[in-house]
Amino acid sequence: MSSSELTSRSLSKKAAMWALLSLAVGSFGIGMTEFVVMGLLPDIGEDLLPSLWATRSEDAIAQAGWLISLYALGVVVGAPTIAGAVAKYPRRRVMIGLALALTVFNALTFLAPTFEWVAASRFLAGLPHGAYFGIGALVAADVLGPGMRAKGVAFVLTGLTVANVVGVPLGTYLGQQVGWRAAFMVVAAIFAAATVLIAFFVPERPGDPSRTLRAELKVFRIGQVWLALGVGAIGFGGFFAVYSYIAPLVTEVAGSPAWVVPIVLVVMGLGMTVGNLVGGHLADVDLKRTLVGGLIGLALVLALLAVTAHWIWALGFFVFATGFVASALSPTDPDASDGRRAGQPVDRSRAQPLRPQHRQQPRRVPRRRRDRGGLGLPRPRVGGSGPRRRRTRAGDGQPLRRAARRARERVTAAPAAAVPVLGRVGGCRSLRPPTARCRR
């Protein structure tokens, strides 16, 4: 059987779960390498910029923040270019290459002797970030097959959730106790394990030969894409500003010891996890209101955090609220890349999906006692109205069809004498049975 003939049905449930777990290990490593540096900025500034740290520690921390910006720049550059360039190749080989690149670049961060080399390694580590998630989502969706694609992608993305709640705080604590390089050594080991697991458990999947880098980059000709990118960059800028400098907020602004930083990172991760779950539900109800209300709420939460950051308990509360609101703005349905849920129609004229069928209100039918223009029989009850009234959902026509069938049966089974006719009998024109006599 060739790789192109291999389908998700040929995989057992156990093999599919191992494949998803392999991809989830890589997403855990990505979440950890992206956010662990944020809690270690003071340690990095003190180690790599000793002269600046000795004179002005604030400037050393601010300059160390460029490591975060360079990683983000690598994500922006690498996501469309790498994903578009490798889309035509077999996906398993692409995933192995991306995981191996992440291993090498994070190991370079661990071994880099100077700030400039660390900065270059952070930029390189950000390049495979977007391509790993994009192609990994396609592989995960294909592993479980139709009807369970969203579940497969969601399982892979749980690696990010676990990284925010567990990996980043533990990596920060390890970096504080042993040295910041130890955290990146652990990250490199995680990516090495992900590379081995992907090589053994992820099935071979063919690429799409029709997809090229030039075709993928044509999406940037669409104005709405730039609008969406601008809203995301501006809207989430405040969240990443808080997350990037969470360590100085805890130690210098709130005056707490350094061991409190991992705890605050756990609080932030919990807020992001809960917000992602709630935001998915709110987006299904009304996408536009969720986005607008979330951006306004994020602005208010950040303003209150700036005012109350001097108290550690208030800082912890508003850090949780910041993670909650920011994550509530960014949930996506992996099975609905065209803006819909699985099996749900799309209203192309609006920016949100149509309501599901069971939420639409049924059409009300007026009740009438008799059909005076027909046979004179009572009109059948519609939707079970009456003593045994039952609500009829839209699309559920069973009660209506049963009532119509009963009415037809009554008309068919009725004796001829009981059916009124309009005619002239004995010189008297009236509505009566044909056996009745006309009374003058």
Shape-level CATH architecture of the largest domain: Up-down Bundle
Number of domains: 2
CATH topology of the largest domain: Growth Hormone, Chain: A
Shape: globular
**What is the typical, i.e. mean, pLDDT?**
77
What is the C-alpha radius of gyration, as a whole number of Å? Answer: 32 Å
Number of separate helices: 17
Q: What's a quick, concise take on this entry?
A:
The chain has 440 residues and is mostly helical.
Task: Offer a few descriptive terms.
disordered N terminus, 2 strands, two-stranded antiparallel sheet, mainly alpha, 440 residues, Growth Hormone, Chain: A, 2 domains, single chain
SSE order and pairing:
Layout: H1 13-35, H2 41-48, H3 50-55, H4 57-64, H5 66-86, H6 91-111, H7 115-144, H8 149-177, H9 180-201, H10 213-217, H11 223-235, H12 237-244, H13 246-253, H14 260-285, H15 287-308, H16 312-328, H17 398-413, E1 421-425, E2 428-432
Antiparallel strand pairs: 1-2
Helix pairs in contact: 1-7, 1-8, 1-9, 2-4, 5-7, 6-7, 6-9, 7-8, 8-9, 8-14, 13-14, 14-15, 14-16, 15-16
